[in-house]
Amino acid sequence: MLNAIATISLTLVHHFKTGGIIANEHILDREQTRRHVEVFGRWFDFIQLNELPERLNYPRKRPFCLFTFDDGKRSNATAVAPELERLGVPAVFFVVSSSLDCQKPLWFDRYKALRRKLGTVPPGLTLHILKQLPYAVLIDRVERACAHYGVDADLEDDDVALMTWEQVRALHQRGFSIGAHGFTHAVLTRETKLAALENIEKSISKVREEIGAPCSSFAFPNGNYTAELAQHAIHCGVPMVMTTEPTWADKSFALWRLPRLQFFGKDSPGKIKLKTAVAASGLVLNNPDGTGKTYRAINRLAKQSVSLNPVVHETESLPAESRHQIEA
């Protein structure tokens, strides 16, 4: 029933909605990758990142889909990329610049391991609380808890371990786009202004240095951003910046604040189609960065004055509140 309703809904949306979607993925296995490609491939043209500006400004009858993958997990290189390559589908892989090659799990994988072992989390370690903290405090709190309970994330798991720079360079050489996802996976609106600006700059610079080519884009960790931070990423040399505002992308969005729809490997075809259809309204879904439906007001402001090189007003800054609960 869900699949039938979703198909009808997406069929209707397909006929009146311009632009397309930027899919925000994280970890998929080969079968899940094929399923996502199969579902989206029926309705959308798969595009390269460098095709996005033209598709936003000159819509075609058939909408577009751009795949993006956050965090730089090793399974992106061992499972996702080979399957996408076999199917002829492009993608952008966003990496946490300081974490590659360091053999250290990202903080939220340690959090998941802690929660699995305990069945819950100790006071002061809920995601709602953790994501309010500066990165250094967050890391210290998670590491202390893991040491106390004798638990850590499994770096033998390709969904936990991160790619090496050698793997990232190989993806770039095979035609995939490589973007920056922070120097650390800090919620940048929880950092001082200086620390956040430096995090963005170092992240982009490190990607450029390692792949020997311009960094293709920047995606905010957890999606939390302000106009000033997004513009700083543009000034650091990336042509596009990704957020997590859950709506379709069209010419009303400037390249410094591109929306993305978040999907997960366990999502059924029906759920994928229904979420895609619902997102066309730009009204229903909550932003997974924890700011709820704030993006609705921001979008109304943006539509009043749209250009590829906008003048940013203070009212366009998003609030920093973060209550997002990531999936286990």
Q: Could you say which overall geometry the principal axes of the C-alpha atoms support?
A: globular
- Backbone CA Rg: 19 Å
Q: What is the total tally of β strands?
A: 8
Secondary-structure-derived class: alpha/beta
Helix content: 40-55%
CATH superfamily (homologous) name: Glycoside hydrolase/deacetylase
Q: Count the helices. How many? A: 12
Keywords:
328 residues, alpha/beta, TIM Barrel, six-stranded parallel beta sheet, two-stranded parallel sheet, 42% helix, 9% strand, disordered C terminus
Explain what the structure shows.
- Helix content is 42%, strand content 9%.
- It is an alpha/beta fold and 328 residues long.
- The chain has a single domain (2-103, 155-316), classed as Glycoside hydrolase/deacetylase (TIM Barrel, Alpha-Beta Barrel).
- Strands 1, 2, 3, 4, 5 and 8 form a 6-stranded parallel sheet that branches. A two-stranded parallel ribbon has the order 6-7.
- β2, α3 (52-57) and β3 form a beta-alpha-beta unit.
- α1 (2-16) packs parallel to α11.
- The protein is globular.
- The two termini are 26 Å apart.
Topology summary:
Elements: H1 2-16, E1 20-25, H2 30-41, E2 45-46, H3 52-57, E3 64-69, H4 74-87, E4 92-95, H5 107-118, H6 127-130, H7 135-149, H8 165-173, E5 177-180, H9 193-211, E6 218-219, H10 227-235, E7 241-242, E8 261-262, H11 269-279, H12 294-304
Parallel strand pairs: 1-3, 1-8, 2-3, 3-4, 4-5, 6-7
Helix pairs in contact: 1-11, 2-4, 5-7
Outline:
With 328 residues, the protein is of the alpha/beta class. The chain is 42% helix and 9% strand.
